[in-house]
Design a protein that fits this description.
By secondary structure, this protein is an alpha/beta fold. It has one domain: Rossmann fold. It contains eight helices and ten strands. The strands form two sheets. Strands 1-10-9-6-2-3-5 form a seven-stranded parallel β-sheet. Strands 4-8-7 form a three-stranded antiparallel β-sheet. Helix 1 crosses helix 2. It is globular and about 50 Å long. The two termini are 20 Å apart. The relative contact order is 0.17.
């Protein structure tokens, strides 16, 4: 696991956007196959998406040969609801870039057969060639996507019941009303994420500090599903200074030294 530390969430977001752009361009230079990316929602990736949009509008980047799969969606929330992840992604990314509509994949939380929807999603990822890069965030309790604590590290796309903590955190998107937050969601599994060639996880703010400490310095455990990234050959956690506040001093120094050495 590699930890990239920037002074602010803005700096970390811009760094991440340029990493994604570099990966898209690098594959396009050697192959005509689409770049397959996993995408996340929530407040954390908004600045990264804003920088990607800027690059597309400036002619520095294109998503015309990119296939995307979003990591999750609420069960039972209408697609047109302003807090559905369909709405979020179109507002903050898809409506402002040149990705082909047929290349955009988001789980259907209103599917008549939820289990069939999950199985079809996993199949579609495989048929697309698997993820080249998966961009995710992390919850305050260390969960990735909606893989709550004690989710299997071998889990695949499925329906999951959200914990009270997660619903309370997400209530800010539903007028602060906990009861408006759906009780279930569809989510890619931990193994789905870790099957990517590269995984990039964003973590900003002091509320994420414990999760980063547990994921980086703690044991690999289903208690903190982000810790599964420890076994990934190309796992990157991108943090602002606040999010690494609970790391040991020597851990902090190690990751900073590694990045400085790689940039020489």
């Amino acid at each position: 696991m590699k930890v990239i530390i920037r002074n602010s969430s803005k700096e970390a977001s811009v760094w991440t956007a340029h990493l994604i752009a570099d990966r898209i361009k690098a594959k396009a230079a050697v192959s005509d196959k689409p770049f397959v990316i996993g995408l996340c929602t929530g407040s954390t990736p908004i600045e990264t998406y804003a920088e990607l949009i800027r690059m597309v509008k400036a002619g520095e980047l294109s998503f015309k040969n990119v296939i995307s799969f979003n990591m999750d969606e609420y069960v039972g929330l209408p697609v047109e609801h302003p807090e559905s992840y369909h709405s979020f992604m179109h507002k903050y990314l898809f409506d402002q870039i040149d990705e082909k509509p047929e290349n955009i994949h988001i789980l259907d939380g209103n599917a008549k057969d939820i289990e069939a929807e999950c199985a079809a999603y996993e199949k579609a990822i495989v048929e697309a060639g698997g993820f080249d890069l998966f961009l995710g965030g992390v919850g305050e309790d260390g969960h990735i996507a909606f893989n709550e604590p004690f989710s299997s590290l071998e889990s695949r796309t499925r329906v999951i019941t959200l914990t009270q903590d997660t619903r309370e955190v997400n209530a800010r998107f539903f007028d602060g009303d906990f009861n408006k937050v759906p009780k279930q969601a569809l989510t890619v599994g931990v193994a789905t994420v870790l099957s990517s060639k590269e995984v990039v996880i964003l973590a900003f703010g002091s509320k994420k500090a414990r999760a980063i400490r547990d994921a980086v310095e703690g044991p690999m455990s289903h208690y903190c599903t982000l810790s599964g990234l420890q076994a990934h050959p190309n796992g990157v956690v991108v943090c602002d200074e606040a999010a690494i506040g609970e790391l040991k001093v020597n851990s902090y120094r190690y990751f900073k030294a590694v990045e400085e050495a790689e940039n020489l």
